[in-house]
Amino acid sequence: MPEVTAFNWVPDFAQGFVRDLRVRWALEEAGTTYTENLIDHEGKLTAAYRMRQPFAQVPAYRDGPVDMFESGAIVLRIAQSSEALMPKDDVGRARTMSWVFAAMNSVEPVVMNVRIAELFWADEPWAADFGRKAGEMLTIRLQRLSDWLGTRDYLEDRFTAGDLMMACVLREIAGCEHLAPFPDLEAYCARCTGRPAFGRALAAQLKHFETAGPAPVA
Question: How many CA atoms are closer than 13 Å to the CA of 55, on its beta-carbon side?
Answer without folding.
Answer: 8
